[in-house]
Amino acid sequence: MPELAKNLGFSQKVTDLKASGIRIFDNKVSKIPGIIKLTLGEPDMNTPEHVKEAAIRSIQNNDSHYAPQKGKLELRKAISNFLKKSINVDYDPESEIVVTVGATEAINATLFAITNPGDQIIIPTPVFSLYWPVATLADADFVLANTAEDNFILTPEHLEEIIAENPKAKAVVLNYPTNPTGVEYSKDDIKALAKVIAKHNLYVITDEIYSSLTYGIKHYSIATEIPERAIYISGVSKSHAMTGYRLGYVAGPKEIMEQISKVHGLMVTTTTDASQAAAIEALTNGLDDPENYRKVYQKRRDFVVKALNEVGMSTVKPQGAFYVFAKIPEKYGQDDMKFALDLAYKKKVGVTPGSAFGPGGEGYMRLSYASSDENLHTALNRIREFLEEEAN
């Protein structure tokens, strides 16, 4: 095997990046025989049959050439129609929508397109640990806003304080329903934040990938309030159990979408034909599919929250996504890594340490209930046994 020549180096910017704490921990505990992993945010259900069949037909029909850079027009029209119905914003499929390789690429293309060196990106935490490394790669600075004291919501007052302290703020990132807490912003919350964002002349990058999975609350997009400032990101990974299809999209005003489209083309050229065919089917004939998943997830959420509360672990009651964020036992203090490792090695249950999601996550653990009922029941029994043994 070749060894790199000793006089060759690396990008210092990339070298300084830390790998995802979620993946590092998952890789470590995955080697434990018999472990029940509730670490990763991936639906355990299958992609709907009619969606799979659309992908198969695409392959059989030799749909194997470069798609348009922004995505197939039929798909962009389907996305436009879906967003008109769901968030009441009318995006032009010709010029205001780009189909991406998952929401991850959409986030990358967006941050590269809007930032200049030294611009500041405000990121409420705890949150999925993608946004700040991407901001770093885009030569932007990031400001992590700890929301733990406000029930994991970025309040308008807190946002005003952050903006006052960071005069080069260019954009605010919102991810809601939020990974890892499952917290959903109310309509009033969003209206109040929108006023502050507009007042200070900021973008809002709104990642609403979990918007179809809410419980007892109707999702309200900030793009509905300030479409002229919003860059809307979503996809079909969570709504239709299609994580492996890597199909996301980004929508916004024409002027910024021209720039995002440039970056997207340089990053990936275009997305795959079969995945786009599947997404067309999902967003045309599969709009009711997420409701089937939502009912299952809500039942699991109720079970997990009740079981954790009964053994003394307080939880942030999730109103969306498929995670429970729970406070670890007092004996561990804020050391969520030790708690998660002890639970994994002693009782073979994998959960993610809250500190992997940035400030405010310390002293918590994230449990994904996107797993079978059998796994969840077994895992919660093991957690109960673990806590009883640790208390003695």
Automatic annotation (TrEMBL):
Its cofactor is pyridoxal 5'-phosphate. GO terms for molecular function: pyridoxal phosphate binding; transaminase activity. Its EC number is 2.6.1.-. It is an enzyme of class 2 (transferase). Residues 35-383 form the Aminotransferase class I/classII large domain. InterPro entries: Aminotransferase_I/II_large, AspAT/PAT-like, NHTrfase_class1_PyrdxlP-BS, PyrdxlP-dep_Trfase, PyrdxlP-dep_Trfase_major, PyrdxlP-dep_Trfase_small. Keywords: Aminotransferase, Pyridoxal phosphate, Transferase. One of its GO terms (biological process) is amino acid metabolic process. It comes from the Bacteria. Belongs to the class-I pyridoxal-phosphate-dependent aminotransferase family. This is Aminotransferase. The lineage of its organism: Bacteria, Bacillati, Bacillota, Bacilli, Lactobacillales.
